[in-house]
């Protein structure tokens, strides 16, 4: 239900418009496909993915001699299922065997801290012993905010002062995770993309520390992207993917955007699975990405 509410704008942007479109046509022709293409591109599904979807629907219409424009909606749904299916069997967060470390990367403002808080809350609820590391030492506010989330989730936060070396925070957090037998350590990192070189060097340094100090830990590197930025999110993802082997994506703020189609295009383009989607600001508003539930929410 929350998923459905959270995706309301995207649903309006895709299936709402498709409904209007197919009602206004008497027969299936090229104009209809052109308009359908525009709807999908506007919803940020991505150009290539849109083309592939349109081609597949055209083939089906031809081979099955479909005449009724109203059938297009169901064909679209089938195609979306197929595309999301071919990518992954909805890969879950990998935190077994323990200990596990989750490095969370992304540009400032995308919802990194919030997502970390939500994941901590979720894992704590599953009975896991969780520890947080305030690796974004560049902004005092980021450290404070992570502590607020730590309190909310009932999870300890390892932190240093503003301006200290992020890799040193992560080093300490790893020692603390060991000492306390934490099953999952979740690390925040800085996200100053305007200073790309420093950011990447900082991330690489953190990765070296993890490699050296915690090589036995199950590792996830999650990139957080703001879905409202649509295709820009894909550009950011490409940059981060150069510095770090991203193992999963978190798409935030789907509740505020009609560009939720980006979820469909992005994992296909990057070949990295979407693991979570954010559909609001509360601690419950981070959901495991379930492609079937996602498509059903758009069409339901
Ligand atoms: P960070 O700079 O990447 O750590 O970003 P924050 O975690 O501070 O988030 C920036 C803003 O986005 C905050 O106001 C969050 O409440 C908000 N936010 C994060 N995730 C979501 C989401 O899924 N939906 C909505 N509506 N807001 C979100």
TrEMBL record:
Membrane topology designation: Peripheral membrane protein
Domain Signal recognition particle SRP54 helical bundle: 3-84
Alphabetized UniProt keyword annotations: Cell membrane, Coiled coil, Cytoplasm, GTP-binding, Hydrolase, Membrane, Nucleotide-binding, Receptor
One cellular component (GO) term of this entry: plasma membrane
UniProt-annotated location(s): Cell membrane; Cytoplasm
SRP54-type proteins GTP-binding domain mapped to chain residues: 99-300
Keyword tRNA-binding appears in the UniProt entry: no
GO terms assigned for molecular function: GTP binding; GTPase activity; signal recognition particle binding
Family stated for the protein in its record: Belongs to the GTP-binding SRP family. FtsY subfamily.
Protein name as it appears in the record: Signal recognition particle receptor FtsY
Native source species: Alkaliphilus serpentinus
């Amino acid at each position: 239900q929350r998923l459905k509410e959270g995706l309301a704008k995207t649903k309006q942007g895709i299936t709402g418009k498709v409904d209007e479109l197919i009602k206004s046509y008497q027969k299936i022709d090229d104009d209809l496909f052109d308009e359908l293409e525009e709807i999908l591109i506007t919803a940020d599904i991505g150009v290539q993915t849109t083309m592939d979807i349109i081609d597949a629907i055209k083939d089906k219409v031809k081979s099955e001699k479909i005449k009724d424009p109203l059938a297009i909606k169901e064909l679209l749904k089938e195609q979306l299922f197929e595309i999301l299916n071919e990518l992954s069997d909805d890969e879950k967060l990998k935190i077994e065997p323990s200990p596990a470390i989750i490095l969370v990367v992304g540009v400032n403002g995308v919802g990194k801290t919030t997502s970390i808080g939500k994941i901590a809350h979720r894992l704590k609820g599953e009975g896991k012993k969780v520890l947080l590391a305030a690796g974004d030492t560049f902004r005092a506010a980021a450290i404070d905010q992570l502590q607020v989330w730590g309190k909310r989730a009932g999870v300890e936060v390892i932190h240093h002062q503003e301006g200290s070396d992020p890799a040193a925070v992560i080093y300490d957090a790893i020692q603390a995770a060991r000492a306390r037998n934490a099953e999952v350590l979740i690390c925040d990192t800085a996200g100053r993309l305007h200073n790309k070189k420093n950011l990447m060097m900082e991330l690489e340094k953190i990765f070296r520390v993890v490699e050296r100090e915690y090589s036995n830990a199950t590792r996830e590197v999650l990139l957080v992207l703001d879905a409202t930025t649509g295709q820009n999110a894909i550009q950011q993802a490409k940059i981060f993917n150069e510095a770090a082997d991203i193992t999963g994506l978190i798409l935030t703020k789907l509740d505020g955007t009609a560009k939720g189609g980006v979820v469909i295009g992005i994992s296909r383009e990057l070949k990295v699975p979407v693991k979570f989607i954010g559909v609001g600001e509360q601690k419950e508003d981070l959901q495991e990405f379930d492609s079937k539930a996602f498509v059903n929410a758009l069409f339901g």
